[in-house]
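Could you help me review a protein record that somebody else here produced? What it holds is a sequence and that sequence's fold in token form. I need someone to confirm that the token line plausibly describes how this chain folds. Take the sequence as given and treat only the tokens as open to question. This is what I was given:
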Amino acid sequence: DLKHFFDAIQQLNRDDLLLAYHDRSDGGLLATICEMLFAARCGVELEIQGDPAAMLFNEELGALVQIRRSDHEAVLSVLAKTGFATHCRVIGEVNTGSRLVVKADGKTILDESRIDLHRAWSETTYRMQLLRDNPDCAQQEYDRLLDAGDPGISPKLTFDPNEDIAAPFINRGAKPRIAILREQGVNGQIEMAAAFDRAGFAAVDVHMSDIIAGRAKLKDFRGFAACGGFSYGDVLGAGEGWAKSILFNARARDEFEAFFKRADNFALGVCNGCQMMSNLHELIPGAERWPHFVRNKSEQFEARYVTLEVQPSPSLFFRDMAGSRIAVAVAHGEGYAEFTDAAALAAVQPLVALRFVDHRGAVTEQYPLNPNGSPLGITGMTTADGRFTILMPHPERVFRTVQNSWHPSTWGEDGPWLRIFRNARRSVG
């Protein structure tokens, strides 16, 4: 029976007959429908027959699916082939009232606001966060549940992600070499290499020990990408140990200083690489006012899927992308951009490449839409010539559409973030 059920659900999914699915388990039907309401931000009216307790709290094997009314017969037909049609029943429909209404034999036995239910559901977590985390952030996250009109993740693109702007250069057969730079504790080098490879580069694995020992030289590469992870376990602060292995090693310092003084190259620092490069600001022309990255305002490691807006900036990576709002993966514990003073914050504004925004497109410092609390939503910066860019989020983790936690059904194979790697390829010709 379980195999047949699984096969039926897979068939319905392949045929695009399912709008939503949730297994019935702990808490029974009532808990199942509540979880679906909270995710979808809608209301539902249920009509059940028989004993309400047995129907609402039964935890036996089962599932709740949402389908289009017009697909009812088609769904039943698929289920009939596997012997489940007689075990299925229509129990309700979605409504726009943002309430959960349950009727038993025509009599209303429950009528509750979705928001009130969601806050009751989340209150235990909220109370723990108040004690464990930054209480202001805990309150902000809890209060977000009051926003009944939150549109959710709403991408807006000012370019076509399916356009391969790097194709004319790739077709010439040239594959510029890029150093995929890593240090002890870095873990994002494979996905970074994959993104640059897709854009037409020849990605080369370069460990810091290769540079320090003289086995690899940055002069042999058109660019480098400093990858994410936890170099030296962040015990000296985010990216601090990695940066010091450069600043206090004569050979490494000379390599990087010479690289940054060239006029024909570029560099990208992501997450731990961003933190490391920010600590190299004395070697990078135009990076004098870059911030220092410290512990998230939430006081916790944040791994989330949040929305960024691309800002007008000189960065070669974000060419022709300004105004786009795109969701991205973040994963860091020390991403708060700390500026020396208000003057430094004001001075860096023309170099800001990325900001956290809410689901309506407004720049935000509110948690968790801004997971680290950085001022003015700042999470990506560049230099005046646009060749050196640092950012805390992880676009290399979501450069394919299928890597995104959610995406519009109209997106093709290439996700929007692939454009920044293609921009890099276009920049070197």
Summary: The two ends are 59 Å apart (CA to CA). The chain has a mean pLDDT of 95. The first strand starts at residue 20 and ends at 23. The first helix runs from residue 2 to 14.
